[in-house]
């Protein structure tokens, strides 16, 4: 199995809302198509990849550095010698050659985009859904042998991340939005904080809590906006409520600030969606005072060099006494859902009705009781999401 061509495109993913730090009006994503010579059912296997919302398209790094390295590599080095199929782990290492340590940023996103496409192609060639291929490739225990309480392979807990700040938004429109998520089958939801005054945010929190049925939980997300005194005053105000978690109160690299906050606030904290490599996660575990019994880690495989780096992060977590069940990746798409199922993570973020068509899961897998079922469709499953499949065909066919 060989790569014949890799095509790179950009697509808009703009929306008219904001979190506490950025507006999404000019947001873009990269979309790639990895065309191979491998034929299944009379058609050449093509793998598709894209990045999660919140980081822009990465055309320059893809076309200027990563793809030339893949093209220059002897094709046999990109193949698993046992199966003869594409080996995304080998390709990942090739793309990352001649890059200095540190400064991960956009480069990690660019590799993540290619990683999704390479796994999509490899899983389609193997005739397996991605979550199953990853399980065997990374030697994760089969679901039968996992303890009863462990996350099941066939479905993943998801929560509805919304509650953005809209120019004409009111508490009333926020309540309508949250009600619509409950109607879709979600049980747990998340809203933004930090884009309004503390008093207004508390009003938003109370309005949503008032709507949630028993057993459903609310999380809040400040997107790294606050300095330590503000983060502490929000923590104090929010401690009156039983929140699922308080997300990104501080800059993602302010580890000591997190440690002060964790000391002051017993409630669960969440962070990690803007940490893109193992050393950054290791520093978080060493210095941020996070608690393995309650806090939530949100590193996003598609933004952080893809599955090989994510698997290494999980090893780093295990060494520090953290279960994969504490991980709930940012991103809200099929690839992260497959990773969550494969590695037994606690869940996966979801963005109902926004960041479409990249966000969301298979058309035939609605959210039921706050969980999404994994299917048997080979690859990442883009072909099972009609609007996304149409978009990639329009971009590349
Ligand atoms: Mg977030």
Automatic annotation (TrEMBL):
Ligand binding (Mg(2+)): 221, 247, 273
Domain Mandelate racemase/muconate lactonizing enzyme C-terminal: start-end pairs: 171-268
Cofactor binding comment, as recorded: Binds 1 Mg(2+) ion per subunit.
UniProt-listed SMART domains: MR_MLE
Residues that bind substrate: 19, 53, 100, 164, 190, 247, 273, 330
Gene3D superfamilies: Enolase-like C-terminal domain, Enolase-like, N-terminal domain
Site (Transition state stabilizer): 53, 190, 349
Active site positions: 192 (acceptor), 330 (proton donor/acceptor)
Keywords, in A-Z order: Magnesium, Metal-binding
InterPro entries on file: D-tartrate_dehydratase, DgoD-like, Enolase-like_C_sf, Enolase-like_N, Enolase_C-like, Mandelate_racemase_C
Cofactor: Mg(2+)
UniProt site positions, description: Increases basicity of active site His: 300
GO molecular function: D(-)-tartrate dehydratase activity; metal ion binding
Protein name: L-alanine-DL-glutamate epimerase
Native organism: Actinopolymorpha singaporensis
């Amino acid at each position: 199995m060989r790569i014949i061509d890799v095509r790179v495109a950009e697509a808009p993913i703009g929306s008219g809302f904001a979190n506490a730090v950025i507006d999404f009006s000019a947001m873009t994503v990269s979309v790639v198509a990895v065309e191979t010579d491998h034929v299944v059912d009379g058609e050449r296997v093509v793998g598709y990849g894209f990045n999660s919302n919140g980081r822009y398209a990465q055309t320059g790094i893809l076309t200027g550095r990563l793809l030339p390295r893949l093209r220059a590599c002897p094709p046999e080095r990109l193949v698993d010698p046992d199966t003869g199929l594409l080996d995304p782990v080998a390709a990942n290492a090739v793309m990352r050659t001649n890059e200095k340590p540190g400064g991960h940023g956009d480069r990690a996103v660019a590799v993540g985009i290619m990683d999704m496409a390479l796994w999509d192609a490899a899983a389609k060639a193997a005739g397996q859904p991605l979550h199953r291929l990853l399980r065997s490739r990374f030697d994760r225990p089969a679901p039968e042998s996992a303890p009863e309480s462990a996350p099941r392979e066939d479905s993943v807990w998801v929560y509805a991340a919304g509650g953005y700040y809209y120019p004409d938004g009111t508490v009333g429109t926020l309540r309508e939005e949250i009600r619509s998520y409950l109607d879709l089958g979600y049980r747990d939801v998340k809203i933004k904080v930090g884009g309004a005054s503390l008093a207004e945010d508390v009003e938003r929190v109370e309005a949503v809590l008032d709507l949630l049925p028993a057993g459903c939980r609310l999380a809040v997300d400040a997107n790294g906006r606050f300095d330590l005194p503000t983060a502490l005053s929000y923590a104090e105000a929010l401690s009156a409520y039983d929140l699922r978690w308080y997300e990104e109160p501080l800059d993602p690299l302010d580890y000591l600030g997190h440690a002060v906050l964790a000391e002051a606030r017993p409630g669960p904290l969440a962070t990690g969606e803007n940490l893109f490599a193992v050393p950054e996660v290791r520093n978080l575990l060493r210095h941020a005072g996070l608690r393995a019994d309650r806090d939530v880690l949100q590193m996003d495989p598609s933004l952080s060099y893809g599955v090989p780096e994510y698997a290494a992060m999980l090893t780093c977590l295990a060494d520090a006494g953290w279960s994969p069940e504490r991980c709930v990746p940012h991103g809200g798409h099929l690839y992260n859902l497959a990773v969550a199922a494969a590695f037994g993570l606690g869940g996966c973020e979801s963005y109902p009705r926004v960041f479409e068509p990249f966000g969301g899961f298979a058309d035939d897998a609605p959210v039921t009781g706050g969980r999404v079922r994994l299917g048997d469709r080979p690859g990442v499953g883009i072909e099972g999401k009609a609007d996304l499949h149409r978009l990639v065909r329009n971009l590349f066919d």
